Amino acid sequence: MSQVEKKAGLLRRTSSSKKPLKEKVVLMYDEIFAKEDPAKNNPRFWDELFLMKVNLEYLESKLESVNGEEVQRIQDNINSLFHHCVQALGEEHQIKVVNALQTLCALFRGVHQKNKSASGFDIINMLMGFDKAEQRMKDLMERLDSLLCGDSSESLKSLCLKLLLCLVTVTDNISQNTILEYVMINSIFEAILQILSDPSSRGQHGYDAVVLLALLVNYRKYESVNPYIVKLSIVDDEPTLDGMGVVLHQALTEYNRQYKDKEEENQGGFFSTLTSMVGSMFIADVDEKLSVQTNEAILLALYEAVHLNRNFITVLAQSHPEIDIPVTPSTPTPTTPTTPLGTTPPSLDVMNNPELPLDPNLQTSNLLITFLKYASIVTQDTKDEHRLNSARLCLIILTCIAEDQYADAFLHDDNINFRVSLHRMPMRHRKKAAGKNIPSRPLVCAVLDLMVEFVITHMMKDFPMDLYLRCVQIIHKLLCYQKKCRIRLHYTWRELWSALINLLKFLLSNETTLLAKHNIFHLALLVVNLFNMFITYGDTFLPTSNSYDELYYEIVRMHQVFDNLYCMVLRVSTNTGQWKEAASKVTHALVNIRAIINHFNPKIESYAAVNHISQLSEEQVLEVVRSNYDTLTLKLQDGLDQFERYSEQPKEAAFFKELVRSISLNVRKNVSLNTLSQDVLLKEFSTIS
């Protein structure tokens, strides 16, 4: 049967000379699209319609095909269809409710698809009549709320959430979806929270619920008071917040599992052997094979929870031997397809079973560990737009965490240690780290490891300046907390110092190329001031006096990089040009680093000459450093332990607008109510009704 015949709902051909018959529901749709009131000659028209299996494809295509004049002619019938759909949601007959929900979805999609350039008011008028819209939408939202909070079957609740996702994502830019004004007025926030707080309901619908909430929070968030933002920011109910954390944790865990599975597939076998034989030639290809589609919708939900609700920070930190997930509910599995953006949402098996430990030797986990592991994967390859957005959002989330006092206290708590196995990018000059050798440390060490890893692995032609700035600022905020609270963290600081010095070296080597696109002096200033933090306040937060000595050793050992940086910024700052002021700031910031180099270098050379040693060992250089601190003079630099707090508006507004648009398009693409799901639904409810 041809596609056209399918759309028209053709049943069969009785003979070659006769026209094919149409399904009864298609004939009834045709009556709606005629000028006359379909109930005029058949008072039971609407009752009969909702007993018929919906032909979504035909109804949507019919709505898309009507022209301007026809819209005016059939508007009353479309309004009536919408009204009777809403009324049918209150029916006891479950098949009518299912068909009404699917018809509403077709109405929202079909009308918007046809009228993409129309104003929101025109669309509202065509769907429900502008004068009656407020009451119609109030009735719709109340009935959806009732279905979601009541004793409805899980399949019906799933269908309600699908309809809401369909409604929210029906326009590319959700802030231009005027119908959502009614969703703001008639809030379903409490229904979403109820789903998240109930273990059985959360296991079935948690994923769709958090994605829906994340999207609703972003409706005109900068233009007016969004009640979903206000309500999310004050939620303090522990089971609800925990439930949201469980859903996010499981979605990120599923992504990490998919990545690990692909990674294991690529270990061993011919391809892996060939790669090891020829070095790094195929590393990019291996990375491509390991690529798993990112899940920005879940990341956005995590961001909104962390950013808006201070109480949610405690959820990030909760440790448990096994995640508290309910046993498989006895209620039916949702039968509509659930394939939101990015990875498939966690299967019910995943949602209803204890989490596998991140490490075979470690039985504890939490949302923050799972997120860090996720971030270590998506920040590896930032060439793809979705992965770049995910990496940026991961760093924004970490920025919010690094600024939060409670989160910082947990991150640095020496009594709560974790063994976190982060993913590392394959590089030819280093071996893959053995996960079993990872020590158990405070979680801040894993955050710093992630930042160091990013710094090392992204020095490339297409330089991700924005990500580097965020990365260095996260490190700075963590150091500010350590300085303020005098926390002596046992961390391999030399790895951080080495990574930062190599970053400066890269900026110097690629000055001309990078300056064509970026203000490299701002990044250089941030890096230099990290060293100034260690120089000025390191005695308050470095673990031992030896660590402070090693800092000076690294600065002196790599003095050529700092000397070259000074020459470069001095040259730029003494010439007229757009970077004069920015370069001048770096010149002033280098004063103490240059003082250290100029103080210790002659003494090291003198020590070597007196002792007739051509090449000093590290211990000999450290001995010179320790014995010459007294004569070193440094300048006190103000503001090193100050930072600008994160603010979404106005700096990040454009990013989030585009991110939400991308998420909305993907969710819309995946909210599918196909014929197969209808068959299953109708079979289920025909046994109930």
Automatic annotation (TrEMBL):
Residues 435-671 form the Armadillo-like helical domain. Its main location: membrane. One of its GO terms (cellular component) is membrane. The keyword Nucleotide-binding does not apply. It comes from the Eukaryota. Keywords: Membrane, Transmembrane, Transmembrane helix. Signal peptide: none annotated. Pfam families: ARMH3_C. It is found in: Membrane. This is Armadillo like helical domain containing 3.
